[in-house]
Amino acid sequence: MMLFMPCHAGHKIAPAKRVSLMRHIRNAYPEQLTNPEKKMRKTFSQFGYNLYEFPLPIFPITKFIRPDKFGQQSYGVPNRRKEKNGALYTCRGGFIDFSHMRAAADWTVYLAFKILSDKDNVDLPQEAGILKLHFSHAEELNEEDIVNMAQKIAFERLVWHEVASWHYHAPYHFISEQSSAFTPEDLYSNFLGTEIGKRIALRILNKREPLSYSQIATEEIQKMITSLSPVQSKKDSKHAYDVVDLNKQRKLPRKEQNKDVWYDSKIVFHDQRYVFKRYMNTGPEIGPWLIPEPEKAGCPCEQDPEVLHVPQSASTGKSYYDYYTFTITPDSNMFYDYKRHKELHPAFSAFTTNHFGQIVRHIHQQMEGVLLPGFDKRNDQNPTIFYTNAKKVFLK
């Protein structure tokens, strides 16, 4: 993948240049210094399609993206008429959730500009707890280092969203969101968005084009998705889902069935077991899950996946964790139903994201108890035969 490289890669930013960069950002892109979460991208792009919230097959869930019509990226006030969100299958990047990808791009640009603004402490918008950033010696870093570090932090912030989603429950949250936590496309879509955000930020910092954020971001999204070889139609994205839908496969003659399935559209959406395969790899290499039998979605039989890499070290040779501390203090309501005086999840205390692996393993144990062992592995095991109390959709 081509990236826009700083003219002085390897050298820290001179104070005069930092002032010039910040003047450019404040004059041309002031909105990108404001909360990227004020725009809530709510879509029905959950993993799979022909999904239903009730046992009766009414009001199906899942919205698809046309591969030739992504719409315009927006930041701040939602513009649902211009910005398109939903699911798209790509031959090299698997399923892409556009709402996740777009949010990740915004987060990366926001954080890059915040780091450049020379602030030592940044309080991020709260989600399921208090999120605080502390930077030290960031003046040692060049533009690319700063944007890479912003990308890494943005990804951690979005991994936290997946962790929080597993813990959302009533009355703390309107509905449970366990059915949407760590689904097969989530983390790859998130990190792909940070890659796009990195391109946007470096382009703004180095090219000084007379273009809006929306124009630059829209162009970079188009280029990135094109590089991943998107399928030709919404119907092809549906065919890709069909290949990994247990309900669809069990209706085929036995010899034609694909056994490497990830979800069951016959289980109602609010039963978190409808997606019985989840993706929990947080790096440093993030690879997509590509469907078996890709030709059924119009992809070549053999296609190399686009593996992405989470930044680890700056050009100084130091770990990025030497330059920032990201502390997350969970809301105790994630773990307890105080009205019923009942613990719903094993609790964990405040942590810094250099220990995120321990938290993910903690969540993995909980998910294994619900989805059964092997839920994060690609294989031909069908755990739904043990889901004896799963709620089913009639007439499917």
Describe this structure in words.
With 396 residues, the chain is α+β, with helices and mostly antiparallel strands. The chain has one domain. The protein has helices at 15-28, 98-116, 143-167, 186-207, 213-227, 234-243, 246-249, 356-371, and strands at residues 87-90, 94-97, 121-124, 129-135, 285-286, 308-309, 324-330, 336-337, 342-343, 351-352. The strands form 4 sheets. It has a 4-stranded antiparallel sheet with strand order 3-4-7-10, with no helix packed on it. The protein has a two-stranded antiparallel ribbon with strand order 1-2. It has a two-stranded antiparallel ribbon with strand order 5-6. A hairpin with a 3-residue loop joins strand 1 (87-90) and strand 2. Helix 4 (186-207) packs across helix 5 (213-227). The longest helix has 25 residues, at 143-167. It is globular and about 70 Å long. It starts with 14 loop residues before the first helix and ends in a 25-residue tail after the last helix.
